[in-house]
Amino acid sequence: MPIPEDVTGEEIDKDVRQELQSLPKGLAEDVAKNLVMVARLIDEDPEGAYGYSKVALRLASRVAAVREAGGFAAYANQKYAEALAEFRAARRMSGSAELWPVMADCERGLGRPEKTLDMAGAPEVQKLDKAGQVEMRLVAAGARRDMGQLDAAIVTLQSPELASNSLQPWTARLRYAYADALLAAGRKDEAREWFAKAVEADKDGSTDASDRLAELDGVEFVDAFEESDEADGAEAEVEAEVEVEAEVEVEAEDDKD
């Protein structure tokens, strides 16, 4: 697959670059460039990212970072079985528990929420950092909802991290998930309160909490461009009617003559 000229391979994380040092220099550069493309495209063009990940895997399947990138690309394309296989391979190579939450979420994607909950109670969770533990809690709550256990999902999300006023990278998503679970359980007033709290924490717009809050408040947003187009269309119709009326008047005058 083509690599843009501005991609050098130096853009990758230094830890990944260090992993690639086990490869011949030219091969390492090629793999690095493909990994850059995976990272660049995975949000806006998951299929494209998946294509570059397959190239990287073909070139260096024995590198943990490459297997991890392949897993995330497959995950972004909802290829959960493939993603899980790649994550497991990466974990075996690295020995890290970091991928445990996303592996558990793959089990959800495969329709196995019970397996997800088993993983949520596994010793590996204790090896995760705070962000990883919060992510595991979010995944477990999602599994509870998959099983129709709304109250259990709400309880799963109730934690010191949820109650804390300190804003962390995960705060907005955690508050949003809690608000959404409350709303699904019919607790609308509480849901509104937590969607508002999610908005306060969501500085980079990682959730649609503001839209959900507006929806609960009955606020309807009108697209300014659509409104402008409608106004232009109405004005054009009026002008056309005026022109037709003028033509009719002219024809009537001609008939009199």
Structure characterization notes:
The chain has 257 residues and is an all-alpha fold. 71% of the residues lie in helices and 0% in strands. The chain contains 14 helices and no strands. The longest helix is centred in the C-terminal third of the chain and has 33 residues, at 224-256. The radius of gyration is 27 Å and the shape is globular.
Q: Can you lay out the helices and strands and say which pair or pack?
A:
Blueprint: H1 14-19, H2 25-41, H3 46-60, H4 64-76, H5 80-94, H6 100-109, H7 113-120, H8 130-146, H9 150-157, H10 160-163, H11 171-184, H12 188-201, H13 209-216, H14 224-256
Distance between the termini: 76 Å
* Count of alpha and pi helical runs: 14
Instruction: Give the class from helix and strand content and strand pairing.
Output: mainly alpha
Sheet having the most strands:
none
Number of strands: 0
Rounded to the nearest angstrom, the radius of gyration is: 27 Å
Query: Please, what is the average pLDDT?
Result: 89
Secondary-structure element series: HHHHHHHHHHHHHH
Assign a percent range to the helix content.
over 70%
Percentage of β-strand residues: under 5%
Uncertain runs: none
- What is the molecular shape? globular
